[in-house]
Amino acid sequence: MSRKPTMYEPERCWVGDVQKVSYKTREEAELAAKVAEYDHKISGLTVYKCEYGDHWHLSSGQY
C-alpha cells in the first residue's frame, strides 16, 4: 500500500493586495527566515507582527 505525501499548505493572510504566509510566533517566523537563508540563499529577511491579526510575517524590505 503506497501513500501519497501530504502537501503542507501554510496559513496565509491578506496584507494589502498580497497574501503572505502567517507564522504563529515571532520565533517561528525567525526560524523560517533562517531556513530561507540556508536553503534558498535569501538573506536580509526581517520579521514583523501583522497589523491585521495575531501572527507574524517575513519581509524582504523590497517593494
Please give the structural blueprint.
Elements: E1 12-15, E2 18-21, H1 26-40, E3 46-49, E4 56-59
Antiparallel strand pairs: 1-2, 3-4
Structure at a glance:
With 63 residues, this protein is α+β, with helices and mostly antiparallel strands. The chain has one helix at 26-40; strands at residues 12-15, 18-21, 46-49, 56-59.
Task: List key phrases describing it.
63 residues; alpha+beta; 1 helix; 4 strands; 25% strand; globular
Note down, in words, how this protein is organized.
Strands 1-2 form a two-stranded antiparallel sheet. Strands 3-4 form a two-stranded antiparallel sheet. It contains 1 helix and 4 strands. It has one domain (12-59). The chain is globular and about 45 Å long. The mean pLDDT is 89. Strand 3 and strand 4 (56-59) form a beta hairpin. It has one helix at 26-40, and strands at 12-15, 18-21, 46-49, 56-59. Helices cover 24% and strands 25% of the residues. The protein is of the alpha+beta class and 63 residues long.
